[in-house]
Amino acid sequence: MKNNLYFKKNNKKFSLKDILLKINYNSDEEAINKNIYGINSLKEANNNEISFFNNLKYLNDAKNTKAAACVTNISYKKYFNKNKNIYLILSKNSLIDFYKIVSLFYPYANRDNEKINCINRNNLDSFSFKKVFFGNDCLIDKNVSIGNSTNIGNNVIIKNNVKIGRNCSIGSNVILENSLIGDNVLIKSGTLIGQIGFGFGFDNKKRIRFPHIGRVVIENDVQIGSLCTIDRGSLTDTIIGEYSSIDNQVHIAHNVKIGNYCMVAAQCGIAGSTTIGNYVKIGGQSGISGHLKIGNNVKIGGKSGVISDIEDNKIVMGYPAKSIREFIKNK
Amino acid sequence: MKNNLYFKKNNKKFSLKDILLKINYNSDEEAINKNIYGINSLKEANNNEISFFNNLKYLNDAKNTKAAACVTNISYKKYFNKNKNIYLILSKNSLIDFYKIVSLFYPYANRDNEKINCINRNNLDSFSFKKVFFGNDCLIDKNVSIGNSTNIGNNVIIKNNVKIGRNCSIGSNVILENSLIGDNVLIKSGTLIGQIGFGFGFDNKKRIRFPHIGRVVIENDVQIGSLCTIDRGSLTDTIIGEYSSIDNQVHIAHNVKIGNYCMVAAQCGIAGSTTIGNYVKIGGQSGISGHLKIGNNVKIGGKSGVISDIEDNKIVMGYPAKSIREFIKNK
Amino acid sequence: MKNNLYFKKNNKKFSLKDILLKINYNSDEEAINKNIYGINSLKEANNNEISFFNNLKYLNDAKNTKAAACVTNISYKKYFNKNKNIYLILSKNSLIDFYKIVSLFYPYANRDNEKINCINRNNLDSFSFKKVFFGNDCLIDKNVSIGNSTNIGNNVIIKNNVKIGRNCSIGSNVILENSLIGDNVLIKSGTLIGQIGFGFGFDNKKRIRFPHIGRVVIENDVQIGSLCTIDRGSLTDTIIGEYSSIDNQVHIAHNVKIGNYCMVAAQCGIAGSTTIGNYVKIGGQSGISGHLKIGNNVKIGGKSGVISDIEDNKIVMGYPAKSIREFIKNK
Predict the structure, then answer these.
(1) pTM higher than 0.90
(2) Which of A37, B25, B70, B181 has a Cα at 20 to 30 A from C228?
(3) C138, C174, C175, C209: which to substitute to probe chain A, counting the most A Cβ within 10 Å?
(4) Spatial distance between the Cα atoms of A272 and C279, rounded to a whole number of angstroms
């Protein structure tokens, strides 16, 4: 969440008392007069910030967090026994309660903003851009930055707070928002980058949509196919590492981090918060569940379903994905 | 088919004689002078309407139908033995023959009409809409209705005969046609709703495209992701029940009915005429065959292939999908 | 590659010496003074052209090629022992070296050109088209040809060098480039046809993008769904045979050839260079690997993964796809 340029929180701080009120909790402890200045992950939170813990995968981060407060499940209280400085909000529905608290700080981050303060189209070519080619009918927000020698297709929509590097090619009908795009990046036509992810919960049957305050970061020399969706991160960024290559119709959910020199073939889907190493090859139509860790140099056969972590250098296939040797033996 | 506002049949009635001529059948029975005023499903047809039966899943409906006439397979004649009031058209190619008859009543329903009688763009904001925000370059047909406080993105196309409720958010590059959309609905960018489905047959190697006279009905508080396709119904409506949530790149075919509070993860596909209960959760990249019935509270694991009905409360996984216990045992 | 209208190679010829220089090879043989006038497949190359061999599937073509020169792997030298007229370029990275040579002849074919020399929109209807209906805001290049009675939707982009036949229906938001489209073709909204495919390699960690000099050829009476991607061919054309039908969200990679009267259900993916016969039916969400040959009248069950050739008339299912009898027995 460092360097998050895109959803500046409003400047107000909130006391823990305010925060508890937002989620209909009461307390008369003295601690609740402490002011909280932001939300952050367990790992990155400082002692002015509030964090969240409801997945044991992050147990180590929980044990070592410096956060001032943490929303967590009642049954997870024990994991914080050694941390006397943290204020725990023990919740029956920790995810929803945390959503509500994040929304205090980022009230506009749970939707996509379609308002564009457009550069005058008849003047696009000269508007502070150098050697940028624009196709027809583009809608470019005035605060977008585009590097030299980048080509933009037709009917492209680039919203508020997008930075594009040099020498990129952006196809037609592309929509970009809340994204940081490096140099030499190719994005084929019809791809959507930076929209809110599929994160929400229900509170008394009312939908609470999760704020998405992260960006999509596309590093240098990445190639992305047509009709892909790459959703922006909820609390951290969604990242595609340099020289990685993604084919058509791929879906990459919020918070996914893909390393460098990876190859993702057509119609793959990667669920939220999964991390993928470098030099990973993923065959077409494969799916990877959320919150997994895929090592470096892993090869995943086409149409595989990966539902657990994979160590470096493994070759896997099938559903659930297993070593290719075992896959062939069983078939 | 009640309340079908979108493809008003022309007002002419057709005698059974006219109908038989259309499909190159002859008869000199007296019954063929009877007039037929419309087509309908076996269940809903009245005694002025013609219906269709070629799938034993609908045997019960066939036995109890009140339809004046029915196109069916020669071998299905026996199922109508007790119904003396029905005129049976025993066909060698019942599907194609029925297509042709439907086209008599709905001659323009087998295609998507790209003609829009557009509201003047410079005047969009004031055109009978209250507090509706429009992005740039929208094409909105004059007969579209949009509720208060709804936001419409950029380059959105809303064709003839669409009604949108209040407080909705429609992303950019969305295309809507033949659809009824409730309140508080979110539709992310790039999604297409209400187009004709994948229904056709061949008659002497010539393609006969099935008329699609149904709508897409999106109920209140539904959320639909980016780059989804939800095709309109052929004879009945395609329906997404209230509070249901659909992620990116999902395909929902004609006549599918999804209940309330369901969750459909990214890249799922649901084939034509399948019915899904309430509170059903479907993992990413799953596929469900056509004409199935999935019960309430069913959980379908990611990447599953469902090829038979599922009872209430079951948890299934794999392809063909089976109970999760069995799935794990066999892997 | 015959009749390739779309990426006319520049008129210069290149000597084998020039060609070797381009890939940093040296030779002082006399043969390298020979001029090369183009590149071609092993099968179609004449004795003025250079070709490429790195896949044993094409061994027979290699043995019989008339090409003047061929880039191949060092270990493949033996297959050319009987061909004394060919100049072999034995490469450590034959694919990349060939990419570089193709780029000499077709320097602009490794990207999609977003520049459109647009017909004036206010004048679209009269511009040399007869009875062509255009929706709003189309971008049509001046050199596009469109047959009588064809309907074009809204926001459609048709780039340089596209020919469309008569009586077609093109939906909204469609993008066409480098394509030849027959008569009576239906293309639903949001589909992208003719873009570059997913072909590239790395040379010292620098991406070399493969030139795509082929077209997409859509034959008469084809139907293509919404949000499909059909990439243009690299060295040959991508072809969809007459009367074939493709549902929504299908991906068809470069060089794929689909026969006549095929049916491809929603969300299928067909990888590069695979050839499919006539009357083939492919169930939804199936994937077919690259460089395969699928016979006539084959039926592939939904969600199958095909990783080897299939003979005529077979019915297969599962992953890896096997006969349906075996599939059911094992489940």
Answers:
(1) yes
(2) B181
(3) C175
(4) 40
